[in-house]
Design brief:
By secondary structure, this protein is mainly alpha-helical. It has helices spanning 11-42, 44-47, 53-60, 65-76. The longest helix is centred in the N-terminal third of the chain and has 32 residues, at 11-42.
Length: 82
């Protein structure tokens, strides 16, 4: 059985799985933004031959353009909590 076949799961297990995956996805996105912010500060994209962080995200990480732009902007935003 494929790990992507979920018809066998009871409703409660399916809901729990979705909630758990959503939490992990949000945590991973926050970590990605932090990582991109530090890479941007160090200008690592240039050392790897990319002309911009955007190009690194799109070509190097294969993010779609909207996600790349939003992630870079989030990483460059001033922290909301001191």
């Amino acid at each position: 059985m494929s790990r992507y076949t979920l018809q066998h799961l009871p409703d409660a297990a399916l809901l729990h799985g979705c909630e758990s995956l959503d939490r992990r996805a949000r945590d991973n996105l926050a970590r990605l933004v932090s990582c991109l912010a530090e890479m941007d500060a160090r200008r690592l994209h240039a050392a790897m031959g990319y002309p911009s962080m955007f190009e690194f995200c799109v070509r190097g990480l294969r993010l779609d353009e909207d996600t790349a732009r939003e992630s870079i902007e989030a990483g460059r935003a001033p922290p909301r909590v001191p």
